[in-house]
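Team,

Forwarding the record for the chain on the shared tracking sheet. I've put the sequence and predicted structure together so nobody has to dig through attachments.
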Amino acid sequence: MTDSAMTQLFVFEPEARRIELLVRILYWIAIGIVGWVYGVIALLCLIVQWFYILIMGRRSQGLSDFAKGYLEYMVHRMPYLYLMTERRPAVFPDKVGVFEEMEKSGGE
């Protein structure tokens, strides 16, 4: 793991500004265009990865990293896109890691 600070992405924020709602429309368009292009390239990488695994019997690190970058891009922007926060993410990809934390149930 890295020594970077971790923040929870999906947190309820009760305060909301009306003007941010209008700005968000422009951000949705920009993030949608970048996400669509990034997604098409990621899909092509996954198709190439499939053939790479079929032929070589192992995965390509570069192709996996690109697909991982796309998923991190989309997950990092979801709280803003789904009206959960007013913290605006960058439109273009930035270095973000996504981690999973499993909560233990009371029965264990």
